[in-house]
């Protein structure tokens, strides 16, 4: 039998053990040189480029509610599931990344 291929060997970046990423957890990981925000909301993991599309400001640390994260700079809200802006001043969506759960470990990778 062949060994299972680690997700990390396929371009995925390990975020951490699911058990260590509680509800509401936020962190940023580097995916191919890009800072990617990982958020756990209502049990699901979401990953978006850690960069507000309004004025190039990190989204990490923004308030999360109703499935949306708020940019702390000027208050734009982005939907975690789609990256779409839901309030001004942002009008462009944030790039999404994929998340994956394997053997209790959370990974992110390009969409
Ligand atoms: S930089 Fe995010 S709303 Fe302005």
From TrEMBL:
PROSITE patterns: RIESKE. InterPro entries: Rieske_2Fe-2S, Rieske_2Fe-2S_sf. Keywords: 2Fe-2S, Iron, Iron-sulfur, Metal-binding. Gene3D superfamilies: Rieske [2Fe-2S] iron-sulphur domain. Residues 13-108 form the Rieske domain. PANTHER family: 3-PHENYLPROPIONATE_CINNAMIC ACID DIOXYGENASE FERREDOXIN SUBUNIT, FERREDOXIN-RELATED. This is Non-heme iron oxygenase ferredoxin subunit. It comes from Deinococcus hohokamensis. The lineage of its organism: Bacteria, Thermotogati, Deinococcota, Deinococci, Deinococcales.
